[in-house]
């Protein structure tokens, strides 16, 4: 769908929803605003090619979580409004009433109303399990002194690489990419496999997912011991419209009631989950994210983007 048709559809959907869903689109006591949430279909805002989060083949972890929510909330089905998670993502999806929830959104951004956080993770260091970097947990480790490290340019971990004197030898990868032809996370893990770099620093979900997809065995270490500086760990919520107070409460209850099942999905996709004390969260069977098998549909997921995908950021920064 083009940007023009998306916008037109968004305007039409406001009118249609207000008339079609009287049980949900009700006046709120403060401000008289209405909630335009479909009571029958879980309408999800998603990126068309941003694994491990989502893709048009519905192979991402956000889509697995959406299926879980739809089942638990007695929705008849799940539908997706796709738009690249670049500038305009919120405006062209949630803001245009084409969908009712963004499954993954950083806590604290004002573009959306956040639900309670349902997971916490951080940027991570990836290196071969068998090698001289075994045991490294921080960028300040002397073992990294003469190593070439892959880093997405402009992301917070670059500050720590510079502090440790590692940035001069680092290999930069683009932050904003055209997902029709590029994938910085996959490229970095591929380069790690060929020996072009010795270690990689990536946003945790991408680090875990692409490390699990790789042919080699890698260690994925959340960077939680870097000391003062830019935040590397983030709480992730679901994003809804500011007017959708009851919908937010519904999702908060679902997060509370089904947190364990959500964790299992995230861990299976390789997300290095952290508690508030920066300790790893394990699966119900006591396994780490890297010890669990990748879901079959995720293992089969391609990395070639659809023709209309473009400029997706390879980090957790929200996009308006």
UniProtKB/TrEMBL annotation:
InterPro entries: Quinoprotein_dehydrogenase, Solute-binding_3/MltF_N. Residues 298-314 have a biased composition (Low complexity). Keywords: Signal. Residues 1-25 form the signal peptide. SUPFAM superfamilies: Periplasmic binding protein-like II. Residues 282-320 are annotated as: Disordered. Residues 41-273 form the Solute-binding protein family 3/N-terminal domain. The keyword Phosphoprotein does not apply. PANTHER family: ARGININE-BINDING EXTRACELLULAR PROTEIN ARTP (PTHR35936:SF17), MEMBRANE-BOUND LYTIC MUREIN TRANSGLYCOSYLASE F (PTHR35936). This is Putative methanol oxidation protein. It comes from Aurantimonas manganoxydans (strain ATCC BAA-1229 / DSM 21871 / SI85-9A1).
């Amino acid at each position: 769908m083009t940007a023009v048709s998306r916008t037109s559809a968004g305007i039409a959907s406001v009118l249609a929803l207000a008339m079609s869903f009287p049980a949900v689109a009700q006046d709120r006591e403060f401000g008289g605003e209405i909630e335009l949430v479909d009571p029958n279909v879980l309408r999800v805002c998603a990126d068309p090619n941003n694994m491990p989060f989502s893709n048009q083949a519905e192979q991402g972890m956000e889509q697995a979580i959406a299926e879980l929510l739809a089942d638990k909330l007695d929705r008849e089905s799940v539908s997706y409004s796709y738009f690249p998670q670049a500038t305009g993502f919120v405006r062209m999806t949630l803001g245009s009433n084409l969908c009712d929830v963004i499954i993954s959104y950083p806590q604290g951004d004002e573009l959306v109303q956040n639900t309670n956080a349902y997971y916490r993770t951080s940027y991570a260091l990836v290196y071969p399990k068998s090698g001289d970097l075994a045991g490294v947990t921080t960028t300040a480790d002397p073992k990294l002194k003469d190593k070439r490290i892959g880093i997405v340019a402009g992301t917070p971990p670059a500050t720590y690489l510079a502090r440790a004197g590692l940035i001069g030898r680092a290999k930069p990868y683009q932050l904003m990419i055209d997902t029709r032809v590029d994938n910085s996370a996959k490229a970095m893990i591929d380069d790690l496999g060929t020996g072009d770099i010795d270690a990689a620093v990536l946003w945790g979900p991408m680090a875990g997912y692409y490390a699990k997809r790789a042919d080699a065995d890698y260690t994925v270490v959340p960077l939680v011991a870097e000391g003062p500086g830019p935040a590397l760990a983030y709480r992730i919520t679901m994003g809804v419209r500011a007017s959708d107070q009851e919908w937010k409460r519904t999702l908060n209850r679902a997060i509370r009631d089904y947190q364990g099942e959500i964790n299992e999905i995230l861990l299976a996709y390789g997300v290095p989950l952290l508690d508030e004390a920066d300790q790893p969260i394990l699966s119900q069977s006591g396994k780490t994210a890297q010890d669990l098998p990748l879901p079959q549909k995720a293992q089969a997921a391609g990395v070639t983007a659809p023709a209309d995908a473009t400029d997706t950021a390879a980090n957790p920064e929200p996009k308006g």
